[in-house]
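Bit of a strange request maybe. I'm writing a small parser for structure token strings and I need a real example to test against, not something I typed by hand. Could someone generate the tokens for this chain?
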Amino acid sequence: MPDTLLATNRLDAHYGDFQALFGVDIEVHKGEVIAIIGANGAGKTTLMRSITGLLNNKPDMVTFRNTPIGALRADQVAKTGIAMVPEGRQLFQSLSVEENLIIGGQMGRNGPWELEKVFQLFPVLKERRAVQATALSGGQQQMVAIGRALMSNPELILFDEISLGLAPIIIKSIYEVLPGIIGEGMSAVIVEQDIAKALSVAGRVYCMQEGRISLEGRSDELTREQISAAYFGV
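Reply from user aminoacidic:
Good idea to test on real output. This should exercise your parser:
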């Protein structure tokens, strides 16, 4: 049986009186890539926020390495070995490319990812290391966000809407580097609206609709009709 790295257990999530997630169960195994797909408003980002401590939950609703983390703050979750590339990048506006990357390394976790390795992955960032990060193109900002997450040397990296708002050629280039990132022994969760892109890199997929898991299975076993029905609710 595969080793479970992350699990959500009947996970509910609320924004005030509004319930956004209803009993969501997912698992990520060590060394595995999973995709979470769904339309806008399906609950994908809320799920990522719950895992990373940006939304507070009951402790055992989220476990990492069999340890309850559902009630931890975001900084505490990051120290356990989980990093997120957030939707919209969320870079520090007043800091340079290099400074944004260095902040990612402040967790103090040992591992292969350091500044020069990120620059090898994304050479354009080395060329623009002194430039204000938010002055870069959207694709380059996404590279900074990915590099910042890698600098924490996580065991699990979450990509929230990795291709949102990017040109097709930039999306292609980012997906081309993903196997090298994951090949370093990390597990990954890729949240996407682009079904084909998500399935191209993930071994298993969960589809969300209206805050619930509407379909799960191996990427190479699910049919287009099954995915379409779960995605659109038809």
